[in-house]
Amino acid sequence: MATDYxxxxxxxxxxxxxxxxxxxxxxxxxxxxxxxxxxxxxxAESFELPGADLSGEELTVRVLPRQQDEFTCTSCxxxxxxxxxxxxxxxxxxxxxxxx
Length: 100
Prior knowledge:
The structure is a single chain. Strand 1 and strand 2 form a beta hairpin. The protein is α+β, with helices and mostly antiparallel strands. It is elongated. It is 29% helix and 11% strand. The model has no long low-confidence stretch (mean pLDDT 78). The chain has a domain of 30 residues.
């Protein structure tokens, strides 16, 4: 925004001549905007997404023991296929992802 520095400026005496009605409307406007702010955490608790309640659901997963061609990574503790094996020189089984 360009500023015209040659334009006449208001004196402080002119600023004090605002009417009482004008000052009251300014005060009402600023107080009404203060009520807009509210805590986001409190507002988020009132929202419920459709299908978000999974309390009645039951998870059924069949867990298999580690197979002959799998190993457990000593860094991330995930069971991986032997093709993911990176280092066995120090007696540790480390996967390619953890070796990087």
